[in-house]
Specification:
single chain, 435 residues, mainly alpha, Arc Repressor Mutant, subunit A, Tetracycline Repressor, domain 2, 3 domains, 20 helices, 0% strand, repressor, transcription cis-regulatory region binding, Homeodomain-like_sf
Length: 435
């Protein structure tokens, strides 16, 4: 309970200040626990308020989330519109857009994590349809820059501006889960590194047989496909139910539960997936889930461990053949893209939903560290052999690439990309710059 003095101080504080304080606490909890797992009571306790008092400022938890997202997008869109309007060389403007994004992530790290974790699930919901409009506007800004680069000859003519703009945005926004400006690179230096990576590419000229990006793509759409919610909210479930319907009826209950969980963790996130929903989609009684899987936390740990284990097995198999550095890195890219396509649960890692108090964190952390180390050693080997640019930062580079693949894996579903592996290899290895 509040002390009389604390209560008086809260009461006398200007309303705008109290609203901002509530939003700060709500945003921190959404980032740490996930929106779905955060309660109004927890927000009120964090803000040292009574739950009823909180409703004087916001009518619902959703209203708080709306304010977090709206403020964040207002900031980033204002910055990016100004960067594009200033003009300049396309590659310089691209660097400015990346710097804008990293500055906003640095200024509002909790809000950035919330945006990455919640936007994809909410963009079709009533009250949040405007998120799709922001996505389209941002993609158009980045696409304008890329198209101008193609027209002026600084970027390759076989680029597809819409797809490449989405790839770059997914790469930088996915960095919200780990990038902080207090580390090795401030936003300007980090933006320069990103430009080097995606424009120049990893491999030194003459070391990689470049493809034509246009041969990897079908007719790309101009926006990410979104399922709109009806009043009942059922429409957003259609994709998971359609995919679940393909599972043979004779499949045993445990396998059906694992498949259903994978689909729901991908679609609704871990916090937004209930045990009852898993049971309904799998077609089993909710009371039988504990017998088959234990707890939801145990199931998530098992599925994530399987995903990381499959990656490690594929990496080790390639390594046994002792490929040259370029082929080795191409293999790492390919296996990572394919693993994300096969394991819907991998999106839980992408949006930073793994909590130390929910999972066998030490085991998963060790597996993730091994995956990261495999990438880093491959990059170091390529630098030493002279196949890769000597000024690459192996640790930063592998984190950016893995982030881009994990957060971007959903983008290409339904967008006509015939060869997502080839697209990632081409952009990362050869880069976007005109030769």
């Amino acid at each position: 309970m509040l002390s009389d003095r604390a209560g008086a101080e809260r009461h006398n504080r200007p309303r705008a200040d109290r609203r901002a304080e509530i939003i700060r606490h709500a945003c921190a909890l959404f980032a740490k626990r996930g929106y779905g797992a955060t309660t109004v009571r927890q927000i009120a306790e964090s803000a040292d308020m009574l739950s009823g008092s909180l409703y004087h400022h916001f009518p619902s938890k959703e209203a708080m989330l709306l304010e977090v997202l709206d403020s964040f997008f207002a900031d980033i869109m204002s910055r990016q519109r100004a960067t594009v309007e200033r003009g300049g060389a396309p590659v310089d403007t691209l660097r400015g857009l990346l710097r804008d994004s990293l500055e906003v992530i640095g200024n509002s790290p909790d809000a950035a994590i919330v945006v990455v974790g919640e936007s994809r699930r909410l963009s079709g919901s009533d009250g949040f349809v405007w998120l799709s409009d922001r996505t389209v506007e941002a993609s158009a800004l980045w696409g304008r820059v890329l198209r101008r680069g193609v027209e002026e000859g600084s970027l390759r003519r076989d680029l597809h501006p819409v797809l490449l703009s989405l790839m770059l945005q997914s790469a930088v926004w996915g960095m919200a889960q780990w990038y902080r400006p207090t580390g090795r690179y401030d936003p300007d230096a980090a933006a320069g590194r990103l430009v080097d990576l995606f424009v120049r590419g990893i491999v030194r000229p003459g070391r990689y047989a470049s493809q034509h990006i246009c041969t990897l793509l079908g007719p790309a759409r101009h926006m990410m496909p979104t399922l709109r919610r009806s009043g009942s909210g059922d429409d957003v479930r259609v994709e998971a139910e359609r995919r679940m319907a393909r599972v043979p009826r004779r499949t045993d209950a445990r396998t059906r539960i694992r498949i259903a969980s994978n689909l729901l963790f991908e679609q609704d996130g871990y916090a937004g997936t209930t045990v009852r929903r898993i049971a309904d989609l799998a077609g089993v009684p909710v009371g039988s889930l504990a017998h088959h899987i234990g707890s939801k936390e145990q199931l998530l740990g098992e599925l994530l461990g399987e995903f990381l284990g499959d990656l490690r097995t594929a990496f080790d198999k390639d390594a046994a053949d002792r490929p040259e550095p370029v082929q080795r890195l191409a293999g790492l890219i390919g296996h990572t893209v394919e693993a994300h396509a096969c394991h819907g649960v991998s999106t839980v890692l992408a949006i930073n939903e793994v909590r130390g108090d929910e999972l066998p964190a030490s085991r998963l952390s060790a597996q993730r560290a091994k995956v990261s180390d495999t990438w880093t050693r491959a990059l170091v080997a390529g630098i030493r052999s002279g196949d890769f640019h000597p000024d690459l930062d192996p640790v930063f580079t592998q984190r950016v690439l893995r982030t881009a693949i994990s957060t971007g894996s959903r983008i290409y579903r339904g967008m006509g990309v015939r060869d997502a592996v080839g697209l990632y290899r081409e952009v990362a290895l050869a880069g976007m710059a005109a030769s």
